[in-house]
Write a structure and sequence with these properties.
Among the domains are: 272 residues, no CATH class; 175 residues, no CATH class; 122 residues, no CATH class. It contains 54 helices and 6 strands. It has a two-stranded antiparallel sheet. The termini are far apart. It is found in: Chromosome; Nucleus. One of its GO terms (cellular component) is nuclear replication fork.
């Protein structure tokens, strides 16, 4: 198995002299019988075997599968059974092995058999290894023959023998046992040479692991773990032998013993694997070196399976047993180092890794110079017959694999001598810092590493720093910084990674700080996509946090790399990386010193590049956030930032270049967003935050676009919100904390807030800023705050009452004002009549905007006002219009229930404040085309105000009361007087349902005593009478004329209805029946309306209609030409005369008077039409016309006499025709008269 041979089958073992036994060929079936028969207990051996079952079995490695670095080894493991701890404490590592000797290889493992038949046991051991190799070579690791259980048995027998031998050797101390101990050493060396190195085993063997442990039937599994078992117990045997005989070389063992166990090359600069002098390594040291090289082999094979990006996810050791062996070797070597001054594990590992580095370097040279050979892998003259290291796999090892091995060997120090995971970090190990620094220089000073490799190298450094605890970490941290300082302009992104890597560049100052603070967290929370630069920042945190000395070392190296020329040469990415470095240092170490240094460096960056300027501004803001978080004054940093801001604002105010304005606007937005974050995260307002506002932003706001303006206002909103939160606490109010911020905001932005609120589309946040500024200025500061309260009062009145202020802005102002806790107390200090103004403002926005989300959110706040809450007796509805109508009814009820005159006057004055000013938004609304539902809700609100609150909103002696202007804007706008202009369909529908309440409300005020009200009602009747159909059906619903509701079905007092009917009939008489030139369509609607009213209640209407309309109706019939109109008018005449005939109301004499008046006025000029109308009357009411005939006769005679022409034949003919139709003789008329 030694040399370069790859075959797993060893040569036949030579016969052993003096044993008396025939040597068994490994190919013989007798050998299988040798093992199988031994598995069946004979009666003679049964008793002893039963006793052996009682113990725990041999001490051997038991696999638990894949390696988990966080798990400890249990008590059933080899290290858990204290085989290592006992060995180091000079105790028997296998104290139970000889108490009940087991039978292996046909012989009990007694002291005599071990002493005199030692060669027999070692021979059988080699035969067992051979059989396991045969099984492992098969494609089926588990045989399907009768020998299914042979492989676990073979390994168990061999480890039982080694356990027994170790226990026996432990008891053989003294020179009298020298010959036996030398024989043991010889046999161990021959067995190790027979086994050979692990790199000669197939890969599936060296990676054979199983969570089943030793119950796994795989030959490959047991072959690998038998190799591990024999290597460990060989170390134990050689240790015990050396403890008795002293240090032994291979030559001093026995004459026929192997001359050397392994051959390994020297490291760079002539370094060898020996202890440090030029003496030949002892047998034990060679055995240990063999074990370490085999662990390296296992790691090589595991690491070469993965790419560099996946390497950090691989545990390193193929299974838990190889890890366990590494831990045992570590503690064994460190014990020898402490007690004997021998090599420690790190010295062993250092030699092996430096050899690999030498091979890697030679391999790199060979790639550049193809004729060069790898001297480190050339077999020496003495290499034949010994095990040659390193393995051929070393040619494939790259730098990342060496880093990875270095890290995994370092992790072994996380376990104690019993295999338990240590909670605390292990102490620094000699030479590891130097080796790490060497690795860093070799990896980064030569060929430029890729980003994948950089990420892996830095991950390893970070893990090592966490493991070692940070002492002397600046030695290798400085080497890392030397590399990264030369590559600050690199983006450290993976090729083809897309936009994933851009997440490392934060868009906000607070996001930058959060990212910086995340570098100080546990590395287990490190993101998978973090760049090598971000990992380096984590390393810097771990280095400088270790001690003040480490911080000073790194501080000097880092500061020396930055100066004015360097800052001007950096690209935007380099500037971002540099700023991130200083922010990381500031958050970890001396925040004031680093912040001042960073602000000084940022002020050196030229402003020629927009990309650099963005990073500079964010860097300043992030620095300020860090200082505020630590409770430090920010004045020094602001002093560096102010000149930069002043230059940008000056350019923004003077330039006319659109592209430049856009770029400068982006910087303003960055500053405003950072300013907002500063105040949102501030807990102490005494750290000069006000100086961030007084940089001249207010002077250039009118030059800014919508985006910049919104960002600045959001920042002011955050600032004032923080001030309000502070002022709400009395202890801060007494000290005047926040006064400087309030004064600066008012001085810088007060004029802008007032002016911009009157624009068409002010930002929504403007109202919020103005509201919070009002509240802040209303507080009683102890310091000099002259004029702030007066300014607060003026600002309140301006935003609530000024018509020029945008409705949305006013709404936002009121909402923000009332939403602040304790705002009512503060508002009362600046305006005692605030409640009426707020309600009036709410109603104005309600009329203008309808039930929008903003109005809905404001409504509950208005309902909680003290005065409003005292009026409303029930829980207010969510709908704003319903709440407003509830308020109207509550005011009316409160007014009517009050008994005292002064109380009534106080309620009226408050209500006048509530409802004043509604005419203007209503007029503006009617000029537009609002949504039908919006218009209907507004008119219903006004109708309720007329109907329920007429006594409150109308004062006859006060012309400025709300009712007259509401009448002019809602009921009688100027457009209504033009009969040619039809009403909008939605307005007509809305008025149709609301006019009755409005008219009834006017009527309830008492028309008889107020000519103005009479005139208003007459105009309403006059101009709306013809604009609605008398009766129409829509969607199976009959809709009647609105005047029918107010004249017939109104829920008002009877005297009010009578007054309204009287005015209505007067309007019909004067404006329609008695007026010429009226449209026939209008006449038809009016006549039909009167007919409809009479049909609903003829008895109520009969007398008044006859009194007011009979004579005008008869006159109307004289002049009508349109047949439809004439027919409808005739129907009305018939209705009147029929009612008069049936009810005798009015009296016959009254009716005769109307006929007499008609005849005398029209007989002279339109006799033919007159007699036609009289004929109709005669048909409808003959007694009435018969009683009127004398008057008709006298009128005819008087007309003839007046003309002086004698008899008028036309008159006589018409008169005679009338008499004829009535069947009356002329003589009867004269006799009766």
């Amino acid at each position: 198995m030694s040399g370069t041979a790859v075959s797993m089958t060893p040569p036949l073992t030579p016969p052993v002299e003096g044993t008396g036994e025939e040597v068994m060929d490994s190919d013989s079936l007798d050998y299988m019988d040798f093992f199988i028969n031994d598995m069946e207990l004979s009666p003679v051996k049964e008793e002893k075997a039963t006793v052996s079952v009682l113990n725990e079995g041999p001490v051997l490695f038991s696999c638990s599968g894949e390696v988990r670095w966080s798990d400890s080894f249990d008590d059933t493991s080899c290290i858990g059974r204290r085989c290592l701890a006992n060995l180091l404490q000079f105790k028997n590592p296998c104290s139970d092995a000889l108490l009940a000797p087991e039978i292996v290889f046909h012989l009990p493992c007694t002291a005599d058999n071990l002493h005199y038949r030692l060669d027999h046991f070692f021979l059988a051991t080699r035969q067992g290894v051979t059989e396991l190799e045969r099984g492992a070579q098969s494609s089926l690791c588990v045989s399907q023959s009768c020998y299914d259980i042979q492989y676990p048995k073979i390994r168990k027998d061999i480890t039982t023998f080694f356990n027994s031998l170790v226990s026996y050797v432990y008891s053989q101390s003294g020179d009298e046992h020298r010959e036996f101990l030398l024989q043991v050493v010889t046999e161990v060396l021959e067995t190790l040479l027979f086994l050979g190195p692990l790199h000669e085993l197939p890969e599936h063997v060296t990676s054979a692991s199983s969570p089943q442990g030793n119950k796994c039937p795989s030959a490959a599994y047991h072959l690998l773990h038998l190799h591990l078992d024999i290597r460990w117990w060989s170390v134990a045997l050689l240790h015990l032998a050396e403890a008795t005989l002293g240090s032994l070389s291979a030559v001093t063992a026995q004459p026929h013993a192997p001359q050397m166990l392994i051959m390994e090359p020297s490291g760079p600069q002539g370094m060898s694997g020996s202890v440090g002098d030029n003496t030949e390594p002892s047998v034990l040291e060679q055995c240990i070196s063999m074990v370490v090289w085999d662990l390296v082999t296992i790691m090589c094979r595991e690491g070469l399976k993965k790419s560099v990006s996946e390497l950090h996810l691989v545990a390193g050791f193929s299974c838990s047993c190889s890890l366990e062996l590494g831990i045992m070797i570590l503690h064994y070597l460190d014990h020898r180092h402490r007690s004997l001054g021998r090599q420690s594990l790190w010295e062993q590992i250092k030699h092996k890794l430096l050899v690999l580095l030498k091979i890697y370097n030679e391999n790199s040279v060979q790639r550049t110079s193809p004729g060069t050979t790898l001297k480190s892998l050339e077999p020496s003259e003495q290499a034949f017959g010994v095990i040659q290291y390193p393995s051929p796999l070393a040619k494939e090892v790259k730098l990342p694999h060496i880093w990875w091995m270095f890290l995994n060997f370092s992790r072994l120090y996380g376990y104690d001598v019993n295999g338990k995971k240590l909670a605390d970090k292990s102490s620094e190990i000699k030479s590891e810092t130097k080796l790490l620094r060497t690795l860093i220089k070799l990896s980064m000073e030569g060929q430029q590493p890729t980003e994948i490799e950089l990420r892996f190298f830095t991950r390893c450094c970070l893990s090592l720093g966490q493991l070692w605890g940070g002492e002397r970490s600046s030695e290798w941290g400085a080497a890392l910084w030397d590399y990264f300082s030369k590559h600050l302009d690199s983006s450290f992104l993976l090729p083809g990674a897309g936009l994933d890597g851009l997440a490392c560049v934060s868009k906000t100052a607070s996001g930058w700080i959060e990212q910086i603070k995340s570098y100080a967290t546990d590395p287990t929370h490190m993101g998978k996509s973090e760049s090598s630069w971000q990992i380096f920042l984590r390393i810097i945190v771990s280095v400088v946090k270790t001690s003040t000395l480490e911080w000073r070392q790194m501080r000097g190296r880092i500061y020396s790399k930055f100066h004015g020329r360097k800052m001007s040469e950096l690209s935007p990415i380099g500037l971002h990386n540099s700023t991130s470095l200083f922010l990381t240092l500031a958050s970890t170490t001396d925040i004031v010193d680093v912040s001042n240094k960073l602000s000084e460096l940022l002020s050196m960056v030229p402003a020629s590049s927009l990309g650099k300027s963005k990073i500079v501004w964010r860097g300043f803001l992030a620095t300020i956030l860090l200082l505020l978080g630590a409770g430090c004054d920010i004045s020094p940093v602001i002093g560096k930032l102010k000149p930069i801001i002043a230059n940008v604002l000056h350019e923004l105010g003077t330039t006319r270049d659109a592209m430049q304005r856009r770029d400068l606007g982006q910087l303003v937005v960055i500053y405003a967003d950072g300013l907002q974050e500063v105040f949102e995260q501030s807990h102490d307002l005494s750290l000069a935050q006000h100086s961030l506002i007084s940089v001249g932003l207010g002077a250039i706001l009118h030059h800014c676009g919508a985006v910049e303006m919104k960002a600045i206002l959001n920042a002011l909103d955050a600032a004032l919100t923080k001030v309000l939160a502070v002022l709400s606490k009395p202890q801060y109010l007494a000290g005047g904390l926040g006064t400087d911020i309030v004064e600066v905001v008012w001085k810088e932005f007060g004029v802008f807030l007032r002016n911009h609120a009157t624009t068409l589309t002010p930002p929504a946040v403007l109202g919020s800023v103005a509201a919070k500024l009002t509240l802040c200025m209303s507080y009683d500061f102890n310091s000099a705050t002259s004029g702030l309260k007066e300014a607060a009062s003026g600002l309140f009145s301006y935003f609530v009452t000024n018509e020029a202020v945008s409705t949305t802005c006013s709404l936002q102002y009121i909402t923000s004002l009332l939403a602040e806790p304790g705002s009512l107390t503060q508002i009362d200090k600046v305006n005692t009549g605030y409640e009426g103004l707020l309600v009036s403002g709410w109603l104005t926005t309600l009329v203008t905007m309808g039930d929008s989300d903003e109005v809905i959110s404001l409504t509950p706040l208005i309902m909680t006002l003290p005065g409003v809450a005292s009026i409303i007796s029930c829980s207010p509805p969510a709908c704003p219009f319903a709440a407003a109508r509830l308020l109207v009814k509550g005011v009316s009820r409160k007014f009517s229930e009050s008994q005292k005159f002064m109380d009534r006057m106080a309620i009226r004055e408050r209500a006048l404040q509530y409802f004043s000013g509604l005419d203007k938004p209503i007029s503006a609304l009617l000029k537009k085309t609002p949504l039908p539902n919006h218009l209907r809700d507004v008119l219903e609100l006004i109708a309720d105000l007329f109907f329920y609150g007429h006594s409150v909103i109308y004062i006859k002696s006060r012309p400025t009361c709300p009712l007259p202007v509401l009448v002019s804007s809602v009921l009688l706008p100027t457009t209504i007087y033009s009969c040619e202009k039809p009403l909008n369909a939605s307005l007509s529908t809305a008025l149709g349902s609301t006019i009755p309440k409005m008219v009834c409300g006017l009527g309830s005020l008492g028309l008889a005593q107020d000519p103005y009200l009479v005139r208003c009602v007459r105009d309403v009747f006059n101009h709306y009478m013809y604009r609605f159909p008398v009766k129409t059906t829509k969607n199976y619903t009959t809709v009647t004329h609105p005047f029918i509701m107010c004249l017939h079905d109104a829920d008002v007092r009877e005297e009010v209805i009578q007054e309204l009917r009287q005015v209505f009939l007067e309007v019909v008489r004067d404006s329609y029946f008695g007026k010429r030139g009226i449209s026939n369509l209008h006449l038809q609607v009016v006549i039909s309306l009167v007919l409809e009213l009479m049909s609903r209640s003829a008895m109520e209407w009969q007398e008044s209609v006859c009194t007011y309309l009979l004579f005008p109706l008869l006159e109307l019939l004289l002049n009508l030409e349109d047949q439809t109109t004439k027919r409808i008018a005739t129907d009305l005449l018939q209705k009147l005369l029929q009612g008069a005939q049936e009810q005798d109301v009015p009296s016959r004499n009254e009716l005769v008077k109307s006929i007499r008046q008609l005849v005398f006025q029209h007989v002279s000029w339109s006799s033919s039409r007159l007699f036609r109308v009289l004929g109709v009357v005669g048909v409808l009411h003959r007694p009435l016309l018969v009683d009127s005939l004398p008057h008709i006769a006298r009128a005819v005679t008087a007309t003839e006499e007046k003309r002086g022409t004698g008899l008028d034949h036309t008159l006589r003919q018409g008169y005679q025709s009338l008499l004829s139709s009535l069947g009356v003789n002329e003589g009867d008329i004269h006799s009766s008269s």
